[in-house]
Amino acid sequence: MVNVLTPETQERAAHGPPSAGAAVDGRGRTRQRRRQAVVAYLFLVPTLLFYAVFLILPLGFALLLSMSRWAGFDLGDIDPVGLDNFAGLFADGSTFLAPILTNTLLFALGTVALALSGSVVVATCIDKLRFQGLWRTLYFLPIVTTVVAVGNVWKYMYEPGGLVNGVLNALGLGSVAFLQDPDTALPAVVVVQAWASVGSAILILTAGLKSIPESYYEAAALDGAGPVTVFWKITLPLLRPSLLFVCVTQFLTGLQSFALIIVMTKGGPGDATNVAALEMYRQAFSYGDWGTASAAAFALFVVVLAATLAQLWMFRRKGEDA
Amino acid sequence: MTASPSRGRGLSRRHFALALPSALLASGCAAPHRGTGRPGDPIVLTLLSHYASGELKAALQGPVDEWNATHDRVKVRTKAVEFTDLLTTVMVRQAAGQGTDILHPYCLWNGQLVRAGVLRPAPPEHAEEIGRGYGAAAVGSASVEGKVYGYPTEMQTYALYYNKRLLRAAGIDRPPRTWRELEDAAYRTARRDAYGNTLVQGFGLSTYDDSTTVGQTLALLNAAGGRFVSADGRSTAIDSPAGRAVFDLEHRLVVSGASAPGVNVYQAFASGQVAMVVSAGWWTTNLKGLMGKDYRDVGVAPVPVPEADDRPATLSTGFMLGVNAAAKYPSEAWEFLRWLNTEKVRVKGLGKSAGTGATATRMSSLQVSVGSLTGRADDMRTLLGRGGDPNLRPFLDALAYAVPEPNVPGAQQAKSLLRKNIEALWTGQRSVDEALRTTRRQVDQEVSRSW
Amino acid sequence: MTRRRFPWFSYLLVVTGAVLTVVPFLDMLMTSFKGPGESGTLPYRFLPEAFDLSNYRAAIDQLDLPVLFRNSVVATGVITGSVLLTSSLAGYALAKLRFPGRKFIFRLVLSTMMFPPFLFFVPHFLILVHWPLAGGNDLFGRGGAGLTVSIVALAMPFLVSSFGIFLMRQFMVSIPDEVLEAARIDGAGEFAVWWRIVVPQTKPVLVTLGLLTFVDAWNEYIWALLVSTANPDVMTLPVGIQLLQDYVDPTRTLPIVMAGLVLSILPVLTLFLLLQKYYIRGVMLSGLK
Questions:
Q1: Are strands B102-103 and B119-120 parallel, antiparallel or unpaired?
Q2: For a disulfide at C32, which of A155, A276, B13, C259, Cβ 3.0-4.6 Å?
Q3: pTM
Q4: Is B194 on the interface with C (CB under 8 A)?
């Protein structure tokens, strides 16, 4: 439920200005401080308790499970097996690396590529139009729609009697079994995921566009630059921070999401649309293999972490450039 | 979570604010309602099956209502989910401590369910009764490592469905018995239009789900004398001459255009666009409903064997009713299962054909009423004796020689892996050699991990 | 920005894209009016033969929509309320109170956002199952069903939002200390300061955060699917519609499901359209400086 933040924001936030209790004399100040500390912790108690129970405990539990074999019902039966589960994931004949992890990466990359290119074009175009709010609202509709609705509507549209094939047939083309054919299933799902995430990308890119000073465009106009030149030489370079941000967040989201896939294909046909998070879900809740499931979750976490660190690194470097 | 005493009017609100989460927790602390155990209250047994809709649901509810009407102390309440959600539901509910007392698992999962401690072994007297009353394939499916875990219920065997009209149109007057005849018939019945679109498939290959996709292939494999999993359950036996022969056969059928695996075979056959399909007995009922009077074109024959003098063989799959290891009242649950599955009662609604005084178990009557079989040959003979759908005959005969689907731990995953590989073979992503090799590598890795 | 000519090319692109975005919704709406045998047949037709409302009645009856609706409302309400309350309290403490460990806790809040949700599905589920003294469990969390018997299981993992705390904290930092100090000198306790000064001043952010949380919670699928598998009594709208589509009248499954989906997205869509400026600001805040 939480979006990843840009490190700049984190940076600024962490070193935010100290506040409270400005100029009070010595004794009163100590008393007030102590009182503030008590109140502060009271205010933080629900949050800290939540972190203890739903963050730290589960992380430890997941780590323990990833290195154990467990039938799943009695906590006393957890049997430590070291790194066996991880070894199993990457053993010869295991499907985790290929196609599952490859699918995960393709899914994430495909979504980013489609959503990014679509949103850049649309955001720059919207910027020139009237009724900008209306257009953005329309593009935003899929974001507030439950994945069950999105998935089912598209599943139906991809069917032989559905809208997409209806259009294809009207154009004189043959029907395509999008979700049944292993070659088209993954691209078909990627299109839907991109369709559903273009809206927020447009929003963020629009904010980026608004922050480009008008004077750049005026200067370009004086030089007689055409709209295409302006787009390539001014808009895109100055939009880089927003682009990078959209790129990275969408990539991270893509690596993790599997709700749409559960709704549309359940990972099939075969393993054609199976992704790492879905595999984790199935290993745990269909096959009762909690160890392998937790190991798969951590393996995916490493990928996500690598992407996050790459993001940090890129932003840092950009910061130094500036 | 205590708020330290403090001043100010914020006090009550703060109490409220901090009390909210704990109130939330408390509201969840009520014990789950199941058999209360209070004297006088009946014991309520819950039963989870995939008889979720339509006539299956009604067919099971009949005997359950009868039990509830005639038993005061123990009542049975049914719950149902779709088959595709059944395994996950069993596992999740068990993990959540909310498993039902009685389960109706697909026998393929028995190894996994036993390993996970979901199923309770049948008490000796029940195990004995099961061994006595059912055919070997049925008992085998309901057993794990020689121990019986439940009463076999629905049994499915695989046979060849064929469309008499389409075969006749191609000049063939009887269903194929050997693979050579099968291929020949497939090529002669297949038809395409000028654009290359398939109008009639000679031999349909289902890609509908794990069970149908793998079932047809394993039926052919068993008919060729092969097996999917080795006798000890620790490796796959598909990379064998028999396995290669099956993969070769399917590959040839697809390449030649006699099979078009992208099409939904179950709809296409019903509308006369497929000449032959290997499928299980449950399909007869569906076809009757879908095809109406065209159903008279449908014939069923044993799965063809490679050579004319080969022994017949096919695949059998099944379900069973077992008792949860966590059930509070196991002996009551077993008693209900005995009553449902082995107590013989007068058969109603059979008409003159079966004669008066014919008896069968409630489960057998239930299954036959929805077009399925049970593993009780005597009941099946009684219920299907005369006047029944002759197409059910080959499935009944197959009970004697069918090979039960392997149910080692990891069998479901192995099945999924096999499915993925044969689909890759059909779509041309893998050659026969590659498909055999990857199937062996992947299944070996899976079943060895599960042990 | 050059607006000398009419930007017909941009219009063309934007309108095409907008049509592509809206058409699936229209298709859902149209399908929901189609009669038996009208959907999924060839050739495809966009408009229904008649605008038949019976699918909506069937969806309400056959899918048990009132129960699903109630569960969704309860879960969403609890989550939104809890997130607003905890974010505001914790945000205030981190922004305006001085206490040992403040920096550490703030860093903790930020770092929690690095952990992806999928890492927690399995352990969260097991923790709820083995919750001590709930659902028939003993003190050590054994023997019963834990919190999975209760509707709070739907909400538990989402009761606190690190992003919400961060958001509130960032906004509260800009409240001038003098205002708070003046209230304190007037004798107001910290709780009163929070409730009477900080909360009113941050109302717009609270609306934004509430809306973001509401929409996410209403649309949540994976966790709700898991919890409802263990205990169908707490099934939410998205799960119910997805899971139960096999149970409705098969000749009109699709129209009924689409009708159910239309009904299920209406509350969120309405709320979004009414309060979209708050929501859109939330999305920007989650992304930009």
A1: unpaired
A2: C259
A3: 0.84
A4: no
